Amino acid sequence: MILSSDMCKYLFISVLSFIAFAKAVAQQTVIDSTATEKLEEIVLTATRTERQLSSLPLPVTLISKKNILQSGTIRLDEILNEQTGIITVSDESGFEGVQIQGISSDYILILVDGVPLVGRSAGNFDLSRITVGNIKQIEVVKGPASSLYGSEALGGVINIITEKPKTEKLNGNVSYRLGSFTQQDINLDVKKRFDKLRIGFFANRFSSNGYDLSPETGGQTVNPFENYTFNTRLYYDFNESISLFTSARYYDQTQDAGFTFEDIEYKGDSNEKEWNAHARLDHKWDEKLSTSYEFYYTNYRANERLEDPIEEDAFTDSDFNQTLIRPEIRANYKLESAGTITAGVGYQLESLDRTYFDERVDFNSQYVYGQYDVNPTEKLNVIAGARFDNHSEYSNQFSPKLAARYQLSESIAIKASVGYGFKAPDFRQLYFDFTNSAVGYTVLGYNVAVDKLNDLQAQGQILDVVVPLNELDDPLEAESSIGYNLGMTFKKGKWNSELNFFRNDFKNLIDTRIIARKNNGQNVFSYVNFDEIYTTGLEVNTSYKVSDAIKLSAGYQLLYAFDKTQEKAVEDGNVFVRDAQTNQTVAIDRSEYFGLVNRSRHNGNFKIFYDLKKYKANVNLRLLYRSKYAQFDTNGNGLIDSYDTSFIGGYVTANIAANKTFYQDFNLQVGANNLLDYTDNNIPTQPGIQGYIKLNYQF
Amino acid sequence: MKTVNTLKTIAIAILFLGFGSCSSDDDVSQAAIESNTVSNLPAPQTGGQGQEIGGDFTKFDFSTGLETTSDTEWDIAFRGTTIAINGGVSTGTADEPERNGDAAAAIATGTFASVVTAEGLVFTQDASAGYAIPAGSDNGWYNYNFMTNVISAIPGKVLVIRTRDGRYAKVEILSYYENQDTTASSRFYTFNYVYNPNLGDTSL
């Protein structure tokens, strides 16, 4: 659906009048000059304004640089996996995606300094692509955030914040780390301020020889790789009120992709390249109004070429080239006691050219959003926001959100929020044209399905079409969810606790279905809005400061994640299983329906951080628990039940790290991940125990 | 005349005897329902994996409970994952057997024991548009798992067959692998069946 120009005008006027109204309200109020800048734990992601973490009405996890450094984590997936309710899950290609509140990687938006990263493999974003070497903090907002960020922000938003150089003295650090599997991580971070100009430069090289979880089979589980990340940031303060931020980031990874299959040793590499260019001009008009003009460009390329060295013919040769360009204008208007208004308008152009596409495909969208953040009383904070996205390929999306926090007493506050999230159908779901050469099935993108099916029919490959083709006339709907969060925080003395109940109802999830049958006995698949699922549960986080030196923390997530259609089929007694022992078919009971794949009912963590100030040292232990989960259906009934055999039993991983500072500027770190040496052939991303040693020089 | 009267008497007597046996010994005249398991019925095929499929079907006759090579005395036939029935017409692939009976098939959902009648089911026959028991993963009797490359019979799918001569049978496929071992060779059917040899009797 295309938005009419009248409608665009109407929206634009609405936003303008919203700001004007806000300005009018502001003029009637006395400005309270209580500065919030001095407060620590400032979060940007939740509201697109600086907000103190503890004052937010939304569930937010903040991971500090100190925590990242002390834990000895080097890639984003490692540090996220140690947070309550955030799990990294490896897909069949071995990519580590993230799961938040039981919602998979496809529905979680990854940002760096507020702008999105692209380049997903079948929807999964590989978090190990991102080094944490130059991060100031990581902010994770749980629950739908499409009201501010648009597509993909259903399960949450992960925003990586880089550090702004502060001092005129050249400062930074250089580090080298060596670990098991010849894993090497080298970092150089330099920051300096020259009066109005500030420069930050960062370089990282990360490599590993990989590892093999099943030596009895040919090839390795993870092949050797090396990657480089470069990031240059320039900040220029024209004057008190106008400042410029620019950032250029480049990532390049090469991994040996060779493998042995039926005694043939295929050789080749897979390569990933990513560019990001980000510029933002911030203009502070006065105490109340500030605007930002932002331009963002990113390009992600991946290719893989494998060949049979004897026959010298290409076994696979695949390319993937995705670009995103996004200008955006934002405005913040502070009404002080009457709240803050945030509004933005932007344009997004995306394109993808890849193997199995006929030609490069372009999407474009326009969007506008507004948010009102207000404290009607001293104890109550309310945030209301909404965003409208007009997209060239799917129906328009309106994403509202409402959140509130009430301070019950000095130590107890209640938080509640409800929001809408959506994910646009991706390029693959719309334009894919793939035929598996080994098995013979075909997968067609929704927008090209009818044409491609006609081609196949003309070639005499189609036995019959099983879906009325006029069902494919209406555009594929965006996947969407409504998320509810209700929580409580308790802060008193040495205790800091948070409890949150969540529920996410998804509809229009896109899945494949058979649209035609082929003469070779195989099927033609295409995509359809089909599934309705829900995830619900609770999360508890508690930290207790035993003394200045010892801090304990514990976290737990309880999760139920089910497909509503399957749940009903099970309740109606229409899903069966063949008991392997008796060879008898029985209807499965509701209690035997386990739920969605890769979801553990229980997740927990326990951490001790012990600071030995006297010795300029600290040591920490982190224990992570994940209860059993299933990988896929094994008994043909299309869902996970307790008879399936793809379960991975519950397990604990223990990570330990010790740090010691000497000669003022040197820091030595020794640690071990997966101390209990837990491995499973079905978890390709989990090697055995990995020791490491790191030397860091701070200047 | 006398002989005629005698014959009449005998005829009437037989008639009464006949009626008598009908009313008192119902079970004896009706053949018992047969319940059996067929193990490792081979179902080879040529081609596949994108190539044209061919090869003879392995035919099965419910009345004998045996594999058969007869061109007429068969009810269902197997080739790879494809199941043909002796009713309707060829779907058009190579080497299909000629349909010369009046067989038909329906797929019921439930445990094997819970499907007790063919009454009320919609029976179809093989046709140029496709097999009565649809081919392909998740269409008919099986599911192909991309992760494990294993073909499993979908539990709870019971094939109800009207045989070539109007009797009824139900079939539950247990395995597509030799000795029901998914690591062994495929294209070996093991199935349970129940056959009611009484013409037109839908109970199973």
From TrEMBL, chain A:
One of its GO terms (molecular function) is siderophore uptake transmembrane transporter activity. Keywords: Cell outer membrane, Membrane, Receptor, Signal, TonB box, Transmembrane, Transmembrane beta strand, Transport. The keyword Transmembrane applies. It is a multi-pass membrane protein. GO terms for cellular component: cell outer membrane. GO terms for biological process: siderophore transmembrane transport. It holds the Pfam family TonB_dep_Rec_b-barrel. Residues 211-675 form the TonB-dependent receptor-like beta-barrel domain. Residues 54-157 form the TonB-dependent receptor plug domain. It is found in: Cell outer membrane. Residues 1-22 form the signal peptide. InterPro entries: Beta-barrel_TonB, Beta-barrel_TonB_sf, Plug_dom, Plug_dom_sf, TonB-dep_rcpt-like. Belongs to the TonB-dependent receptor family. This is Outer membrane receptor for ferrienterochelin and colicins.
UniProtKB/TrEMBL annotation, chain B:
InterPro entries: HmuY. The keyword Signal applies. Residues 1-24 form the signal peptide. Keywords: Signal. The keyword Signal applies. This is Heme-binding HmuY-like protein. It comes from Nonlabens xylanidelens.
